[in-house]
Amino acid sequence: MLRRAPKVSLSVEQQDDLERFSRSRTLPVRKVERVRIVLRAATGQDNQEIAEAMGPCRQTVGHWRDCFVAEGIQGLEDRKRSGRPARILAPTINEIVRLTTQSTPVAATHWSTRTLAAETQVSFATLRLIETGLIETPPVH
Predict the structure, then answer these.
(1) Please, what sign has the CA dihedral across residues 80, 82, 84, 85?
(2) Model confidence, pTM
């Protein structure tokens, strides 16, 4: 027996938010796609119709429908993924940011990547990743 997709019902506020998100050019494309899936589900389309119209497979459409029904808009966010633990911890990153923004090295006008690496005992390659944003800087509280 086939499982029926849960009915998606939206409040006026949710409808307005989702329509605004669906037109966004700054949100990640994956989130916009998820929002559009939910909007189509709220109009009564089934998973197969949505999948054929938008491109993802029926199971993907069903997954995001279920997530929205269970958790609302928060259910459309990416989940934290497992992976290797961070090798460089938040206090070290904060110290690097503090050094580069609030001090200068002795006998120099600014920090070079290599002098900062020697000072903080972090590789210059890691410093470049922090500088380019590939390693996220933790929020300052």
Answers:
(1) positive
(2) 0.61
